[in-house]
Amino acid sequence: MPLSPLPQPVMSRNSTSPGLEAIAALRAAIDADPESDAGYFFLGQAFVFLSAHESLFAGDWLGEKFKKYMQLQPGNPYPYYLYAATLLRPAQGTNPDRREAVRLLNKALDLDPKFPEAHFELGKIYFDEGNYPQAIGAYERAVSLRPTFAEAY
Q: Please, which residues have CB within 8 angstroms of residue 36's CB and are 6 or more apart in sequence?
């Protein structure tokens, strides 16, 4: 399927953050063609690589975008993983929705049992809950699937 062209970033002339401009461009692309999965995929990539920059993803809009991505690609584990990751972000004054995140990560693993990132995220949840044997098992599975997965060590 050919990718839809991305529109120019919708930012003010005073913007100096390439990350903000990139996220604005992806949001504009998704808004322009909400039925094309390409914008959602690249937004997911940006989220994975820039997630430490919480201000880029503030608000509820990201979860809504990944819900739509799950609807567009119900047989693809990646949207389930992305939505779970958004649920695990601490929002202002709320606790992460771990139960729903576990359900989504298990759905991702039902679709692709060899998805190391999903195993890793489950390991983090189990660790935070004090379930160390399950956490270790999830981390070991992530490493066995991708031996170069440094975070899982």
A: 3, 4, 29, 30
pLDDT digits (tens, 9 = 90+) for 37-93: 899 999 999 998 888 888 888 888 899 999 999 999 999 999 999 999 999 887 645
Listed as own residue / partner, the contacts of 36-40 with beta carbons closer than 8 Å and 24 or more positions apart are 36/3, 36/4, 37/69, 37/72, 37/73, 38/1, 38/3, 38/4, 39/4, 39/6, 40/65, 40/66, 40/68, 40/69, 40/72, 40/73, 40/79
pLDDT range class, residue 112, cuts 50, 70, 90 = very high
As a whole number of Å, the end-to-end CA separation of the chain is 37
Q: 14: which 2 tokens?
A: 């005073």
* Stretch 15-34: mean pLDDT: 85
Res 14: pLDDT? 46
Residue 129: how many CB atoms within 10 A of its CB? 12
